[in-house]
Batch of 2 targets.
Target 1
Amino acid sequence: MNGYGERGSYGLGERRTLRDQASTYALLPLRIFLGVTFVYAGLDKLTDSAFLSATGNGSIGEMMRGVRDSSAIPALVDLALKSPEGFGYAIATGELLVGLGTLVGLWARLAALGGALISLSLWLTVSWQATPYYYGNDLPYLMAWLPLVLAGAPLFSADAFLAARRRRSM
């Protein structure tokens, strides 16, 4: 079986090398890590009443006001500050959906693109002021999403299952 849930193009007597097998499974740990992390981040935000407030310690509103002047795109922060609670719910729900989509492997490239966009927006606003740049935690997440944007979830995923089912029905 190859990483797409079907027989590979290897002929009789041909064996897959360890390198072939490793490349098949290479993105799986990254997918699990990002999926679990984003599900946890979304649930953590949705269950934290302090975070989903416009004001107060630990609130999304206070955090956004705190980073507004040091962000790369202050206009993006201003947009979020028009409705901090709504923005907080949007980010939390987005993280939850991205994480679930990544773990299940359903619309995996779209989920990964969503994760990359969330990470990009957080990097340009919340962690932009980190010096040196590699101390900001959102940039590595952005880079981690890119292989999944390019490759999707070809192994142990709803996408692979649905693709194999479509091929069988043709």
Note: Confidence is low (pLDDT under 50) at residues 1-11.
Target 2
Amino acid sequence: MRQTESGAVVVLTNGRVVTPFVEIESGTVVISGEKIVEVKPSRPGSLPPNARVIDLGGLTVVPGFIDVHIHGAHGADALDATAEAILTMARFLAQNGTTAFVPTTASAGWEQLANVAAAAAEVKKLGARGAEVLGLHLEGPFLNPERLGAQNPAAVQDVDLGRVATFLEHFPGLVRIITLAPELPGALGLIRYLRQQGVVAAAGHTNADFDTMNAAFQAGLTHAVHLFNGMAQLHHREPGPVGAILTTPGVSCEVICDGHHLHPAAVRLAAFLKAPSDLILATDAMRATGLPDGEYDLGGLSVRVAGGVARLPAGSLAGSTLTLAEAVRNAAAFTGFPLAEVVRWATANPARLLKISDRKGHIAPGKDADIVALDSDFNVVLTLVRGKVVWDARGRHQ
């Protein structure tokens, strides 16, 4: 195999490859330019000539993690509305195994949201070194005031389809997910519109009852953010949003596996009830992620981080300081499920939600070479984004 116009041939060899659908105990991944071209068992003398070879020495190789719900990291927040803030997030995420992400806004005014969108669009065009920006996730501003959690009450608004339509027209193809409360007046009409536009409508910060949730599914809602958190709770006579989400095939849901948002048994419950393709690990991370404990801002609210746990002054959780590599490690420990299945929750499943499975979420020929190598403690040793090494903890192959 020869060098192509798009870049050199890179070979990752002697790693445990989790695709995640197939596992190769000692495997080799051949990359040409930005794409994976071959995945096979490692054998002596089987490497292509003139390739750049990276010997993984038994590390575990998985697809790059995809975070569909992340507000900030390493001092930056999407609502900072600058390209530098999103680039800061992208660089930090790559060091921690996330190769693609959807910057997520908390509720805010439309002018500020437009500034965030412009910054995200700029970074998307740059293709900068770090995790790839896939678009934008608007968490709000159409949320139930009774279930706001760490959302700013001053920024919550009534459903306004016209505003959304104008926003989507101004930033075509950028918005990938909008989280809303399905019980709000006008929400079902907005969900139908989002389905027509190819935008994922997600439930969150909601008091919807079981019947309303099912009406939302019929209208086109296909996802739910941070299951159990920011929503009416499961009751045996009124299952509410939790019951509807857990019992409806094809509706995906996020779990935040930091050991604080959910008890391990709640994670196991979700894992047992949802189809293997419908569970997604997300971080809901805020700007304190990767930084020491202290005082931080989240969507205009003051947040105190102590022991790595972010809370509002009243004690409510306010996002997390989680990375997806940590979430995968925790989910494997909480559920006892095989690594390949847990990896799927952070790779193939978010790719499926975003309708990018044709290029991301798997280690297979033709896919983007977004690849992460982990040690036995789930520490990220190596990260490639579209075939480029963007992080090497060993300081080699840069």
Note: Residues 277 and 349 are 6 Å apart (CA to CA).
